[in-house]
Amino acid sequence: MSQSSAPREKLMRKCREKKEAEREEAEEEPLGGDIEDLFSENETQKIRTGMLDWYDVNQRDLPWRKRRSESEKERRAYEVWVSEIMLQQTRVQTVMDYYKRWMHKWPTIYDLAQASLEEVNEMWAGLGYYRRARFLLEGAKMVVAGKDGFPNQASSLMKVKGIGEYTAGAIASIAFNEAVPVVDGNVIRVLARLKAISANPKDRLTARNFWKLAAQLVDPSRPGDFNQSLMELGATLCSVSKPSCSSCPVSSQCRAFSLSEENRTISVTDYPTKVIKAKPRRDFCCVCVLEILNLERNQSGGRFVLVKRPEQGLLAGLWEFPSVILDEEADSSTRRSAINLFLKEAFHVEPMKTCTVVSREELGEFVHVFTHIRRKLYVELLVVQLTGGTKDLFKGQAKDTLTWKCVGSDVLSTMGLTSAVRKVYSMVEAHKQGLSVAPVSSNRTAISRKRRIS
Asked: Is 425 a residue whose pLDDT tops 90?
């Protein structure tokens, strides 16, 4: 080692030692923020009893809460898994119909493991966050391919694709009676109010402390029911803005409720701390609904071109109409030039050269909001007749890099498409039927009241 490198090595070694010390300190760190301590033994017993008694009487009748015999634990685990994945970022009422259809098609994990991603995406269409569906399928295939059957402990469940700490805790406690906690948004709200925790729930240390509190409370004899009772309370009585404290089974143990009674300037809804969400970034997209007529066969309608999105990233592996993301908001001429270039490179479609343009019209625009993106979509309908037929599509490099298909309107209307793609197609249907489509600035497309198009 040269002399010049020795000081650098020494500095790097000190940095490593410092990081190691910080990590050890964090592991031993007591409850922090404004979480002073754990629940007392007396509080814990009262909360367990109160929550379970309340849950036994007030639990909602939900399709994934069917009781199963000891011999059907794996079936129960699969049902919990599917329901918990569907319920992430989605309301219970929305999930119920999806869950019933899913279980009718794939009643066991072995049935699901035989499905294709396209079938799963079609079943999932409209629920959003499509990566959840892909991970659910991959996880099912992983479990079925394994030699040990369905994992029955939280630690082993977390090794399955798409199963994190929360989902593992839910499956393990509800299906296999393991005394492990679950912490989701509803549970955080209940715990934050029970202990009057004003620390930022998104903070790493605070989040870990919520898991400690939840672990302490889990009833060892009925862990699944207790975990569900916490989630149920947060979803019903202990709501974000209008908690029903007078009906709450643990209001006498609730520090936030006690403080609000002592001081009218304090409200139960002050807990947990509201975290300001980052503003979604804005982007712009021009969508071209490309309809290809086959006049030789005297068809009354054409076939629509769909492109499959890349297998990684936003809406991975899903079908959509040809589209181009723009760097900034652009006028009609710029958008059309961008689409023309894409059609030429991807499909070998060049208006006036490789095809005859039957019609080309702008249908309108709308805004679709993803988790972190606010996307403005400009929609046009391009109807063409190809001079060489569909066999001339995808000449050159695009054939190797782009997955596409042509489908008729009958197939298109039954496919599992994202809500944004369905909105685009609704605009096409409305245009063809002479209905007006008004531009809107939300997740909805306004269509003339003459007829509602779903």
From this structure: yes
Of the CA atoms within 13 Å of residue 254, those in its CB half-sphere come to: 30
Pairing of strands 303-308, 319-320: antiparallel
pLDDT tens, residue by residue, 324-358: 999 899 999 999 999 999 999 888 888 778 888 99
Distance (Å, whole) CA 215 – CA 16:
32
Integer Cα distance of 47 and 226 in angstroms: 10
Residue 24 Ramachandran class (φ > 0 left, ψ -120 to 50 alpha, else beta): alpha
The Cα 129–Cα 138 span in angstroms is 15
**pLDDT the model gives residue 301:** 63
Residue closest to 63 by CA, chosen among 37, 91, 98:
98
Query: Is residue 36 flagged as an active site residue?
Result: no
Q: What is the pTM of this model?
A: 0.80
Catalytic residue among 9, 70, 74, 84: 84
Close Cβ partners of 50 (under 8 Å, ≥ 6 residues apart): 249, 250, 253
CA atoms within 13 A on the CB side of 396: 8
Q: In the chain, what's the furthest Cα-to-Cα distance?
A: 85
